UniProtKB/TrEMBL annotation:
Pfam family, one: An_peroxidase
Domain ShKT intervals: 26-60
Presence of the UniProt keyword Magnesium in the record: no
Any one GO cellular component localisation term in the record: extracellular space
Organism phylogeny: Eukaryota, Metazoa, Ecdysozoa, Nematoda, Chromadorea
Record key words, sorted: Disulfide bond, Heme, Iron, Metal-binding, Oxidoreductase, Peroxidase, Signal
Binding sites annotated in the UniProt record for heme b: 406
Protein name per its UniProtKB record: ShKT domain-containing protein
One of the record's GO molecular function terms: metal ion binding
Disulfide bonds: 26-60
One GO-annotated biological process of the protein: response to oxidative stress
Cleavable signal peptide: 1-18
């Protein structure tokens, strides 16, 4: 769209109307600004739109009354935090409350809040942490409000039987990407989804003590005893005793902002930091333990202390937390040297902004193409600018079904030395609940091992996931099915039809995305009623057309990543977040570059870190493009 067309559409050629909304002295100059910003016109015609519609285009930081960079929020009043949430979450989950964005406007124009409030300056809670998940379709509780789906109708199969008869298999079919696809997926999921689990359930207690409002224990089968499952905490004011259907709460922001590294509230973030030069607290590994000089989050002998509590879940997850701690500290050191006049807080905030952009670049340019395959362009359109009317909230069905990619997990993972020679193989179940072993062995050898093997096709689960996870106490496949019922998801067919525009499965014999043997097993399990198939089960077993997951999960996953991008005022390509030169440099970043910058000993890496490689195609790290931090040089922050 040309400048003249934009001006004509805005009605600004004859006269400029009164401002519709202002931030300080920064104002939109036409009442149609928001409408055209939502159509992506800010990115298509930036020259005229950024001048006429700075508020709607989200670029007031350069035109407001803020006399200097404000790098600290005024916290004279308390918002929700992890500590506050835990102390108040007794019978239900407390929620973040609205805030007046004007209090910290100069900060909000430049930096993200940790909890996502005021990302959208028109509504402080759009994109905030500690808010209910979004629903793609209305809830489907048996009583309309609270009762677990299938608990009253008794029409759904025991999740454990579904696992035993259908989902469990030790036949490992590979997919094209390597095991880092799985690991990045887990690390990324912890960035923007954290459910709030309840408590008080135990299979060894009497049935009466396991209240159906608190527990969704999976009944025993011939192969396995009862599996304890807590209901997710519901948002206060929803569920039993109300007329509002039960809603679950996401404790994270829906943005790709590296909150698993920094925390999703300022109290948590401050507890991880050193005040010196904007760095994270860290422990250096002694040479006698290998991987000389490697930095890890503090208290490495016990458990890594990071922005997310789930680090011990898997060695690979602990490795990525160590890698991103090193990345932050490296960038912070470099920025401090480039801009000696910056305060430690300015260094920290600028580094956090860059690290969040790294995650966005890797996710949209490398991870999603590997996950969704050739269908990517039709599922995720090109970026057209920030759209303040887009709700970025994480969909319940995304967090509770489509992005629970546990089927990608291999039974075992190799560990390879600096020459890519395998010297150890570890089962998945051995690599859980003890992240101190990551510290002892370092991250390089784990990374080499993950790159050298395929991820597993996610349509089935290995025994390591269903029988041996977390000391044999957890069956991830069965719990995922039960979680969907706990959260009141509609059946699989409804998402195919209403959400994704796919034909409903009317007959098992005509379900083209699933092979005949699987169709017959499902027919038996769901008593010849395709309309009852659980979302998770139906989505998992679909045969992929292009990428790693089938069409229904691809549709739900793509929807989330589009909304998390377009509804994020701080997405790295949004004009004004970074300079055009900085954006171009960020676009050259890659996971390979991150691994090179944070390595303990390795000096070479394969350029495409999500493709299987035994090191044969590794390039010297000096040849892999990395961020040009001199583009962040601030003339006002130089020594005389």
């Amino acid at each position: 769209m040309g400048i003249v067309q934009v001006l004509l559409l805005l009605g600004l050629i004859a006269a400029i109307t009164g401002a519709e909304q202002c931030i300080g002295s920064c104002c939109d100059k036409d009442e149609q600004c928001l409408k055209f910003a939502n159509k992506g016109t800010c990115a298509k015609s930036p020259k005229v739109m950024l001048e006429i519609c700075p508020v709607s285009c989200g670029v007031c930081s350069e035109q407001s009354e803020c006399p200097s960079v404000h790098d600290t929020e005024d916290r004279s009043w308390e918002r929700m935090s992890k500590k506050k949430f835990v102390s108040e979450a007794k019978k239900c989950a407390p929620l973040n409350q609205p805030t007046d964005c004007k209090i910290n406007m100069c900060y909000h124009l430049k930096y993200r809040s940790f909890d996502g409030t005021c990302n959208n300056l028109n509504d402080s809670l759009v994109g905030a942490a500690y808010r209910p998940f979004k629903r793609l379709l209305d809830s489907n509780y048996d009583d309309g409000v609270n009762a677990v789906t299938g608990s009253l109708t008794k029409e759904l199969p025991n999740p454990r039987i579904v696992t035993e008869k259908l989902l469990r298999s030790n036949i490992s079919s590979p997919v094209v990407p390597n095991a880092l696809l799985m690991q990045w997926g887990q690390f990324l999921a912890h960035d923007f989804t954290t459910n709030a689990p309840g408590g008080g359930c135990n299979c060894t207690r009497s049935i009466r003590s396991n209240s159906p409002n608190k527990c969704v224990n999976i009944p025993s089968t011939k192969e396995r005893g009862c599996i304890t499952v807590h209901r997710s905490l519901h948002a206060c004011g929803t569920g039993r005793g109300t007329k509002t259907p039960r809603e679950q709460v996401n404790r994270n922001t829906p943005f790709i902002d590296a909150s698993q590294v920094y925390g999703n509230d300022q109290v948590t973030a401050n507890s991880l930091r050193e005040r010196l030069r904007g760095s994270f607290r860290s422990a250096r590994l002694a040479a006698s333990k290998g991987a000389k000089g490697a930095m890890f989050p503090r208290k490495p002998s016990v458990a890594m202390v990071v922005g997310d509590d789930r680090t011990p879940a898997f060695y690979g997850l602990g490795a990525f937390h160590a890698i991103f701690l090193r990345l932050h500290n490296k960038i912070a050191d470099d920025l401090g040297n480039i801009n000696p006049g910056w305060t430690s807080e300015r260094v920290f905030q600028e580094t956090r902004k860059i690290v969040g952009a790294y995650m966005q670049v890797i996710t949209y340019q490398e991870f999603l193409p590997a996950l969704l395959g050739a269908d990517l362009d039709s599922l995720i359109p090109p970026y057209s600018g920030y759209q303040p009317t887009v709700d970025p909230a994480v969909a319940n069905e995304f967090a509770g079904a489509a992005f629970r990619l546990h089927g990608l997990i291999r039974s075992s993972f190799p560990v390879r030395d600096k020459n890519w020679q395998e010297y150890k193989k570890m089962n998945f179940s051995e690599m859980q609940l003890n992240d101190s072993r990551v510290v002892q062995g370092g991250t390089d050898d784990l990374v080499h091992g993950f790159i050298s093997v395929h991820s597993k096709a996610p349509q089935r689960f290995s025994d390591e996931v269903t029988e041996k996870a977390f000391g044999g106490t957890v069956d991830l496949a069965s719990i995922n099915i039960q979680r969907g019922r706990d959260h009141g998801f509609q059946p699989y067919n409804e998402y195919r039809r209403k959400m994704c525009g796919l034909p409903a499965v009317r007959s098992f014999s005509k379900w083209n995305e699933v092979n005949k043997a699987t169709r017959e097993q499902l027919r038996e399990l769901y008593q010849n009623k395709p309309e009852n198939i659980d979302l998770y089960v139906g989505g998992v077993v679909e045969k992929p057309e292009f990428g790693v997951v089938g069409p229904t999960f691809s549709c739900i996953i793509a929807d989330q990543f589009v909304r998390s991008r377009d509804g994020d005022r701080f997405y790295f390509e949004n004009p004004g977040v970074f300079t055009p030169e900085q954006v171009e440099s960020l676009k050259k970043e890659s996971l390979a570059s991150v691994l090179c910058q944070t390595a303990e000993k390795m000096t070479a890496m394969v350029p495409d870190a999500f493709q299987v490689d035994d090191g044969s195609n590794a390039q010297l790290c000096t040849k892999i493009p990395s961020l040009d931090l001199t583009l962040w040089k601030d003339p006002a922050a130089q020594e005389d």
